[in-house]
Amino acid sequence: MNKRVVVIGGGPAGMMAAYASAVSGADVTLIEKNEKLGKKLFITGKGRCNLTNACEDEEFFKNVVSNPKFLYSAYYGFNNNALMELVSGYCPLKVERGNRVFPRSDHSSDIIKAFSEMLKEKNVRVILNTTVKSVKEGAVLTTSGEYKADSIVIATGGISYPSTGSTGDGYLFAEKFGHTVTEPRSALAGLICEGEECALLQGLSLKNIEFTLKGKREDKKTLYKGFGEMLFTHFGISGPVVLSASSYYSLKCNGNRAYVSIDLKKALSDKELDERLIRDFNKYNNRSFKNSLSDLLPSKLIPVIIGRSGIDENKKVNLVSKEERLRLGAILKNFDLTVSGIRPVEEAIITQGGVNTKEIDPSTMGSKIQKGIYFAGEVIDTDALTGGFNLQTAFSTGYLAGSSAAE
Questions:
Q1: Structural domains present in the chain
Q2: Which residues share a beta bridge with 193?
Q3: For residue 188, what are the contacts with CB-CB under 8 A and spacing of at least 6?
Q4: pLDDT tens column, 56-91
């Protein structure tokens, strides 16, 4: 008789776990509380689904924030190339800037269709609109009855985007079996900043900036350094480089203050920037200081920079001293902000924290506490940066958990 495997959760990790179990010969039932599979997957990558990242293995692990070593077996057992090969048989893929992999159609629904087709081919029973009430050894009790199981895969996600069904059920199931859960918290979310400047700059997007995050202003060690785009908001800052930094803030700062330094002119050295300022000041020789910066800065940023410089905005630019000019350059190379917190987990792209990795066998994704229980995806205490790395983690752990559950 084939082994009976029940997978809880129809997201990327759950769908992959169900598929891998079925490929290994198990009789598989996949239970999903929503009316369709892949509800959160549908909105990833702004609806385009950044499936994975076509990077080298070493680069993948550099982009994992929490517990990268725990993922070695899962990733090497089913890496990005294996995922792309599998999915491209059902849905054509393309690789974009930063090695990000998307469906060629730019529609996340095509990835979900691909997995639905795979599950159908492998005769996986998909039970929709069904909530799991409790999990015990050998059975899963749901709103539509009890399902007997030799193995159970918990792939219920975290608690971000609760409208997609990620409401932390898996943490409760894990705790019932005696597992500890690292406190779930926001990751890949906006950072809240002190003061009124960010609100004044709301809507301003900056490109090609270098962003540095430190736990203390005087720290030599940085928590995160990245280059790219950011956005000012009513609460503080967001955008690609900030989202990445937020995961390290969440992991290291525990909601305490942290300090950001933004190099607004990363392409220029201190000397080159000063030469640029001299050229601009000569060009606008007879203008007031406030009207001399339009070539260098977005108009919205100019009043804030002038305020920080301490230079009288009406001062003729040909009267600005060398000392004042150098001070202005230093501000542009180190635009600092104080972070006071992170946006709530309901707004976060992913959840950091989850089932303690020390209590899960990394070679099987099986519980070290309860025989027959396996974990996959975001419910586990591991997370990564944007660019397809979190989805790859879900698919890799899902594949390993599903395969192991069927053995």
A1: 4-186+351-406 (3.50.50.60), 190-343 (1.10.8.50)
A2: 339
A3: 243, 244, 246, 247, 348, 349, 350, 383, 385, 386, 390
A4: 999 999 999 999 999 999 999 999 999 999 999 999
